[in-house]
Amino acid sequence: MSPFEHGEVFVLDDGGEVDLDLGNYERFLDIKLTRDNNITTGKIYQSVIDKERKGEYLGKTVQVVPHITNAIQEWIERVAMIPVDGMEGPADVCVIELGGTIGDIESMPFIEALGQFSYRVGPGNFCLVHVSLVPVLNVVGEQKTKPTQHSVRGLRGLGLTPNILACRSTKELEDSVKEKLSQFCHVPAANIITLYDVSNIWRIPLLLCDQKAHEAILKVLNLERVDSIAREPKLDEWVARAAIFDTLHDTVRIAMVGKYTGLSDSYLSVLKALLHASVDCRRKLVVDWVASTDLEDSTAIEAPDAYKTSWNLLKGADGILVPGGFGDRGVEGKILAAKYAREKNVPYLGICLGMQIAVVEYARHVMNFTDANSTEFDPNTKTPCVIFMPEGSKTHMGATMRLGSRRTFFKIADCKSSKLYGNVTYVDERHRHRYEVNPDMVPEFEKAGLQFVGKDDTGRRMEMIEIPNHRYFVGAQFHPEFKSRPSKPSPLFVGLIAAASGQLDRVLQDRCNGHVGSAKHVLSNGSYTSAVHQNGNPKKLTNGLSNGTYYANGNGVHA
To answer: Keywords for this entry (predicted)?
Structure first.
């Protein structure tokens, strides 16, 4: 999946490679999703084809309706029963995001499936929130409702009627605009929510709460009288965090050295982790994007201005971060960035490839192995510092990586990384890579002063590196950014920001004393249990969906 086309590939605990939107859900709700929470057209069609090949349709003609639409509904109901918040039993409400734009041919089967679903489960069991843009004409400042009117008309023509409108705009909707939308879209004015520009993203939940969005949802789902659900939102933590962010003025500059710097979404989780850590350290984050290719010697000849600008940004940074990546383009520039950070005692964090190139740099310039390299970039190198992982395949791009949550054991108790994690003996972090540090060269590296502070349970996979006499030089084979949360920032990112802002000694002391948020991560695959939705008399489904879920007040539709 190309980061330029899809943005970041987000990795889940179970190894699922999913859309970056699932990362937003994990961060905001502090939950752990599974690969099945990500529904794609390919997954649905594959499941239907597999069933047809097994003879489950008894030779019938397989069609979009009902087979594809039924498969979508079955998937939704099955996954909705899997707890993702660490608690037992299914959730009270399942959120389904149907992406794209009304009218897109790609989403037609999903819209039809949800239309059938809403009719089958009946009122009180289905709430449709339609997100739409209300543009503002800068010349006169008028808010235009026509795009929303047309999209709602198109949605209703496809069998779905919105209960709530979430209107994205640069400023708050005027009352007259809300009345107009209510009249033309047949949505109560109280159910028209404005999502206007705010100072930081953590104000969005506060914005929704102020407009009683939660009450509107509870009312549509007939849950406003259920005491265990209809509680006042506890947003004190969000209020405090949003206020802190707006008052930050002392900056910390981090140079992000990568190859996909043209699209910031390519490193979305890294950016969010930096943001979480900077707020934790009470610093205003400034990210300087440095294209790794612009640091290379060839650029000095071909584009001297870009070369000079990139090196000035690198030299002006308080800390340097080299994120993960694939392919050999820009690798030499990343190696130069790691070399600069090591020699100039600049705080450095290398993630995945960022750790591997730091090892290569160390071999070249400290251990004098001038031809040291990764076999990913030079298969014939005489000093293979980084080698292909044993269980992968060199020929197939998909499903060959070491993916998902893996355990890393700390081998050196007094290292910075262990202290940042609260002096624990091990951590569980998410991986996404094919190549790793050559274990046969580890004794030579350790003799030269490079510490491998974290390893897997076999001791053969190098998970974390540190240079002990450096302010902060840390590399991680895993991706710590994927588990960073606003209330629980990733320890390695906190270390980088703290070191870059002169606070590392205090932070390490605090964490050694236990002054750090401890989260118990519980991953449950759940169990499928029957659910009865109380809004009338139960009716058993008759459309072939045999997942043990019944919808009171629903309509049994014969397939």
So the answer is: ATP-binding, Glutamine amidotransferase, Ligase, Nucleotide-binding, Pyrimidine biosynthesis
Q: How far is CA 200 from CA 92, 247, 362, in A?
A: 29, 11, 40
pLDDT in tens, 225-277: 887 787 888 899 999 999 999 999 999 999 999 887 777 788 999 999 999 99
481 catalytic, yes or no?
Answer: yes
CATH classification code of 10-242: 3.40.50.300
Q: What is the CATH number of domain 250-513?
A: 3.40.50.880
At 36-60, the pLDDT tens digits run 999 999 999 999 999 999 999 898 9
Active-site entry in 130, 433, 479, 533: 479
Catalytic residue among 185, 352, 385, 415: 352
454 in Cβ contact with 446 (< 8 Å)? no
* Of 26, 77, 463, 481, catalytic: 481
Same fold, 10-242 and 250-513: yes
Phi, psi angle pair for 531, to nearest 5°: -130, 135
Peptide bond before 66: cis, by omega within 30 degrees of 0? yes
> What is the C-alpha to C-alpha distance for residues 392 and 5, in angstroms, rounded to an integer?
25
Q: Output the CA–CA distances (angstroms, integers) from residue 393 to 13, 155, 435, in the order listed.
A: 22, 45, 11
Residue 428 is encoded by which pair of tokens? 């569980």
Half-sphere exposure of 441 (CA within 13 A, CB side): 21
Q: Is 352 a catalytic residue?
A: yes
Q: In whole angstroms, what is the distance from residue 537 CA to residue 552 CA?
A: 5
Distance CA 350, CA 338 (A): 8
